[in-house]
Amino acid sequence: MIYQGNAITVARDDDDIATLTFDLQGESVNKLSSAVVAELDEAVQAIRVQGGLQGLVIGSAKDAFIVGADITEFQGMFGKGSEFLVEMLERVHGIFNAIEDLPFPTVSAINGLALGGGCEVTLTTDFRVMSEQAQIGLPETQLGILPGWGGCVRLPRLIGADNAIEWIAGGSQNKADAALAVGAVDVVVPGEQLAAAAKDILARAGAGELDYQARRDEKTQPLKLNAIEQMMAFETAKGYVAGKAGPHYPAPIEAIKVIQKGAGEQRARAQAIEAKAFAKLALSDVAFNLVGLFLNDQVVKKKAGKYEKQAKAVKQTAVLGAGIMGGGIAYQSASKGTPILMKDIKEEAIELGLKESRKLFAKQVERGKLSIEQMAEKLTHIRPTLSYGDFGHVDLVVEAVVENPKVKDAVLTEVEGLVGEDTILTSNTSTISITRLAQNLKRPENFCGMHFFNPVHRMPLVEVIRGEKTGDAAVAATVAYARAMGKTPIVVNDCPGFLVNRVLFPYFGGFSQLMAHGADFQRVDKVMEKFGWPMGPAYLLDVVGMDTAVHAGEVMAEGFPERMGSLGGDAGKSAIQAMFENDRLGQKNAKGFYAYEEDRKGKPKKVSDETAVELVKGVAQESREFNDDDIVARMMVPLCLETVRCLEDGIVGSAAEADMALIYGIGFPPFRGGALRYIDAMGVAAFVELADGLAEELGPLYAPTDKLREMAESGERFYG
Q1: Which of 70, 223, 319, 608 has a CA 20 to 30 Å removed from the CA of 182?
Q2: How far apart are CA 363 and CA 342, in angstroms?
Q3: Mind telling me which residue stretches traverse the membrane in this protein (predicted)?
Q4: Alpha-carbon distance 66 to 120, whole Å?
Q5: Which of 381, 451, 457, 517 is catalytic?
Q6: Is residue 638 within a helix (H) or strand (E), and if so which, with residue range?
Q7: Distance between CA atoms of 718 and 720, rounded to whole angstroms?
């Protein structure tokens, strides 16, 4: 044994080949923490002083190769400043360069995921062999940073600037065949042949058949591009990537600039450029928030995983109510492998649900994700029915009928008598109390909410709502089913609107207050889109539907009369009510705050509509000018305060879950980290002061809670 550590071992075989194996003890995956990097340094030094070695294989004893750096360390490291980060990166460059400069050929045997720093480790070796099931990539730009351990230097020299820009700016995970096609790896083999393939490459390199030194020269020398080729590669890419990334995500463009600046340099200078750019991005709010988002996602997944371990198997499900929503739920279930019955009382509704499912599967075929045969097979997992004939064998039912408590109550009590005693019943209600819906059920412990967001196939969040009598088994099974559908479930307690809609409607209340005071809704939309929302509030209301918004608003007003007694917060009619009363329901009837026309792809395209403008002017009680900061404050403060209340009321279990629910459920700007992280970024005291100033004029919707005031006084934060 050449080296033995907690995460790394190095052994020498009879052929004088050293094998460096990553196997982090006590963890299910390999991560490059500070401690592991320190071990790597020791291991490489031990290899360097060995005499007579003929080659090195770098491999993994776990299912994944290396999933990347230990992201839990990032925020602590970033907080130490630019100088610390550059020094840290230089140390890692020194270790990686030492691998690259070993006096014999080297190869990485990539058996599973090789991401971020894990991918950068493989780039240090002369050759790479890859299992057919493995994936490789540099996803750092998704965290607001860029590859800082040589990825921006080595990858372009290995696969060309164009391909490297696509991989790095896009942050994609790439399958083995794609990696082989661009030259990122040299050989792809079945997993069981990986070790033999690695040894074979070293033998061929040792015999002079493969020129490993030429490989090194290629990775350490300037990119072979003339001035015109550089301009074509980099300037074109910048324009395209800027359009895709948008103004709030600087990392993809910065990565291209780093590749461009380093293109004409030797290894050392190019790495220095990379390190400086990494440190600059790491100190940004965007990186801090996106890393926080990743950590929050891990919290959410860990909690869901605990529920999943307690859950009984969900092998057969059913959805009550076909149509667009039912068809979307059926598609999602069938596409992920759980058979589902789709029940309705009308043949035309069944056909609409099947049509929706077929359309979504057909899109997968168009994109090359499925073959026609695979689509046909998955469609067999959806069984349409007008009767309850097979419901005795169903493990879980999703009720997705019209948002009316009487209708839902009738359907739920009916189906409860036709399923097994252990069958879990769930309701896809967006606002109606789960405790209320459970009142007439014989087994309320087997009932909970399962709130999907529209469109089902795109929106990652599912709210799992626990009523007063909901049992743990029902919650666990529903969480497990949501995970099996590829969704992110977050468990919340029952209240009007649950978590996401309860938080969203104060945001709409802030919008209605702005309209009442004479703001231009089209300008408000532009300001909030500039702030980072995927669409402004007026446009969002058109997508939600004015009838849905009015109904949900009534539920919220009943539940929280002091804050949400009216959507506008003022006496008189709100802009939303004016739209509803004039049959301007939004996209569903092609007229709301905007009018809608079909674009070339048949999708609704919004256009300005003077009728809507006049209707909004008609409900304005005054005419005032608002600057951008005023608009953002009036929109964001009510949303953030309601999130605080949900946390204080125990509706949601943690700040991490609250923020992730808003990002996954309503498109809260990810680079801002969520409502509670947004308050932290402003400073709790500054946020309370802002809210108090607005509350004087605008009322209880803007009033901070007592606990939030205590946090402000004590300097406490939502995140440590």
Answers
A1: 70
A2: 21
A3: none
A4: 10
A5: 451
A6: helix 628-648
A7: 7
Angstrom distance (rounded) from CA 577 to CA 633: 23
Q: Is the distance from CB of 595 to CB of 609 less than 8 angstroms?
A: yes
Report domain extents, the chain. 3-283, 314-493, 500-585+615-714
- Angle, nearest 10°, between helix axes 684-698 and 706-714? 140
φ and ψ at residue 264, rounded to 5 degrees: -95, 10
- Tokens representing 262? 């380093």
The one-letter code for the residue type at 108 is S
Phi-psi label, residue 396: left if phi above 0, alpha if psi -120 to 50, beta otherwise: beta
Half-sphere exposure (Cβ direction) of 489: Cα atoms closer than 13 Å: 27
**10-residue block means of pLDDT along the chain (720 residues)?**
97 96 96 98 97 96 97 95 97 98 98 98 98 98 97 97 95 96 97 96 96 95 83 87 92 96 95 98 96 96 94 95 92 96 93 92 92 94 93 96 93 96 96 95 98 93 98 97 97 96 96 95 98 97 94 91 70 87 94 93 90 94 93 98 98 98 96 97 98 95 97 95
CATH homologous superfamily of 3-283: 2-enoyl-CoA Hydratase; Chain A, domain 1 (3.90.226.10)
User: Could you confirm whether domain 500-585+615-714 is CATH 3.40.1790.10?
Assistant: no
Contact 502, 651 (CB under 8 A): yes
Classify domain 314-493 at the CATH superfamily level.
NAD(P)-binding Rossmann-like Domain (3.40.50.720)
Non-local (6+) Cβ contacts of 698 within 8 A are 513, 569, 634
Q: Residue holding tokens 């790491």?
A: 282
Longest alpha-carbon distance in the chain: 88
Q: From CA 505, how far away is CA 523, in angstroms rounded?
A: 20
Give the dihedral of Cα atoms 686, 689, 694, 697; nearest 10 deg: -170
Phi, psi of 283 (to 5 degrees): -90, 5
- Dihedral sign computed on CA atoms, order 157, 162, 164, 169: positive
DSSP string for 95-116: HHHHHHT-SS-EEEEE-S-EET
Contact 664, 460 (CB under 8 A): yes
Q: Which residues pair with 8 in a beta bridge?
A: 22
DSSP single-letter state for residue 304: H
**Whether pTM exceeds 0.85:** yes
Q: Are 152 and 274 in contact (CB under 8 A)?
A: yes
451 is catalytic: yes
